[in-house]
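Entry 14. Ran structure prediction on the chain below.
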Amino acid sequence: MSSSMQATETVSDANTRARSDLPFGDTRDLADADRGFIAALDPPVIPGPDGNPVWDCDEFGFLAEDCPTTANPSLWRQSELCARQGLFEVVERIYQVRGLDLSNMTIVEGDSGVIVIDPLISAETAAAGLALYRSQRGGRPVKAVIYTHSHIDHFGGVKGVITQESVDAGECAVVAPAGMVEHAVAENVYAGTAMGRRAAYMYGAALPRGPRGAIGAGLGQSTSIGTATLIRPTIDITATGQTETIDGVTIEFQMTPGTEAPAEMNFYFPQMRALCMAENATHTLHNLLTLRGALVRDPHVWSRYLTESITMFADRSDVVFASHHWPTWGTAELTDFLELQRDLYGYLHDQTLRMLNQGRTGSEIAEDIALPPALENTWHTHGYYGSVSHNVKAIYQRYMGWFDGNPAHLWEHPPVESAKRHVEFMGGADEVLAKARKSFEQGDFRWVAQVVNYVVFADPDNPAARELLADTYEQLGYGAECGTWRNFFLMGAYELRNGSVGTPTTTAATDIVAALTVDQLFDAVALRVDGPASWDAHIIIDWVFTDEQRRHRTELRNGLLVHFDVPDDRPAAETTFTLTRPVLMGLLVGLDPSRAVEDGTVTVTGDPGRFTELAGYLDRPDPGFAIVTP
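Output, structure tokens:
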């Protein structure tokens, strides 16, 4: 299989035009990204438990060079800014560790210790960030951790900065928006396998770092691959206006559910005149539907919450910072920043709905929509992480669903059968490839990707089709301003040439699974039931949880597993297991029930084999499923 290509003349010319069309004379971000720099992490490699790196700050060092023709210069600029690593002072008493993971970790100094905001993805990177801070500012203890929202890059490294024991002893508080844990574990477990596999594409985990490979994801450079952890919150933030004082630091909270995450919050530090916007206002257009998969976010409510943030906090603030990118200083400057971010999401929402109601489909709107000059000419409104194109389609999906109203699209053949018929109608694989090569030479890469994809899905072992499709994805990646688009295209090319890389990271980490409630555990089990295989099965089991004083029943019937609490005065099922929630988790991940009965961990009334029978109907998810081949 071929290696990567250089940029074609079509892509090279487009990237050259972008350099002249974009406001490269505006260098304020370059100054802001360096402002307050104190020290870099040295050595710049963070090892994991096995000694292998979970993060390498220097692997994107090539971004200090001039942008080549194999990268969009706007994305190159964004990536170079995101790659700057180290400890930075935001204002007196507020510091940020940046460039040590996809997200930032912010450290606020209190009367006797520190408050850590968003401890990165991995315990290893979070520990390294805290150590860097302490090397410059002293060994202050952590008095609180704040999770801004329910995505793993904002809580996964928590055990790198505190311990469960310190929380249990009351030495450290954990603060989060109400519902954060429930949303976090649901996202990482229910559809976690599929999301994790697609996240490998979104963040380019397996791509070589370099001008023809990964240069960044727009929101940050990539995701660390260390140990993901979770400690449950001890303080829930439930309402806008709620105020907490932690270690002498006063914090005013604004709830923003349904924006960038189902459970998210902004907050303000009046003593420092500093505003934290979580992930609701960063130096990019964010995702309304992330390419790895998620629930569609609401740009209308997102825009309205930004208006509320401006009203509540802007004129009282000297700096605004977020859990990604670099701060913006100055009351007028940060107000303008927030207003433009607000206008961006509101405009996309309203214009998509306007055109939707004129009968245009999501793909048509995405092709036609144009941003106002004030947004187009501002760096932080560009789609480095979430593109205008896929966000518009997400808005359409939110209101109208997958169906565009054309009956021809109501019952199409699935991909493989459709591909075989397309290729046959177009004269066979050789004819399609011959015509596609001409389109490739003409620079019509979008069309080449569409038609050659038919050949690959009709005949995945066709080497000429795989090679041409890989070359095509590569050119599309080279021209993309959106970091996640570039990674998706280049990962598609990489797997066509090298085979599946699977899922390099795991979202269903031990701590996350351990946070599942009994109801969520059985929900997760129900999602694995092989329906057709269990059509004729009827299994009823009662589960008595001694640590929660409840009796819960599962019933498998007609290929569906339902579960519900059973009052104590109801007759028991034929089989009853008495145990604790952690033991149930052990059974679900492979603990032998007979051994658990023998050692007294579980007591059973009736036939313990009914659980084994139930487990036999469960499928195993596939973290390496095919994406660019059938």
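Residues 46 and 55 are 5 Å apart (CA to CA). Will compare against last week's run tomorrow.
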